[in-house]
Specification:
Blueprint lengths: L10 E3 L4 E7 L8 E5 L4 E4 L12 E3 L8 E12 L8 E4 L6 E3 L8 E8 L4 E12 L2
Parallel strand pairs: 2-4
Antiparallel strand pairs: 1-6, 2-6, 3-4, 3-5, 5-6, 6-10, 7-8, 7-9, 9-10
Length: 135
């Protein structure tokens, strides 16, 4: 499989979505997994290439440019704007800002579980940034 093909305009929170907001440190689109950099407290696109990049804190619900306010989902249901496989576990991709099925993880990838598909359109967020790289 490959990274999810997301349609930004279709990313939507659900009634169960717990949200947060912060400042974007780079251009971010709705649907992208994000992490907060402790040195400037801004949000950046997450990926599984390092423990820092893989410390996902949410999925963007809005688009934001540098230094703009960014709303993001922390937990609960979210439509990520893509077709999902029911009961599939989704993780951070090798490509920053992208989501992939867990089966795509390769050697050296840091494992961050984003959630499980509860339908073909909804991801139940349950962020788990393990800090562990796959052997």
């Amino acid at each position: 499989m490959a990274d999810l093909t997301q349609t930004v305009a279709n990313v939507r929170r659900q009634t169960t979505t717990q949200r947060g907001s912060g400042t974007a440190g780079e251009p971010i689109s709705a649907g992208m997994p994000i992490y907060r950099l402790s040195t400037d407290n801004k949000w950046y696109k997450a990926g599984n290439g390092s423990a820092t990049l893989a410390d996902a804190g949410g999925i963007a619900l809005t688009n934001a440019d540098v230094d703009e306010v960014l709303d993001y989902a922390i937990s609960g249901g979210i439509n990520v704007g893509a077709t999902l496989t029911l009961a599939e576990i989704y993780v951070l991709s090798d490509t920053v800002g992208k989501i992939a099925p867990a089966s795509d993880l390769g050697s050296g990838d840091f494992v961050t579980i984003l959630g499980v598909a509860s339908s073909t359109s909804q991801l139940e967020l349950n962020l788990n940034s393990s800090g562990v790289a796959k052997p």
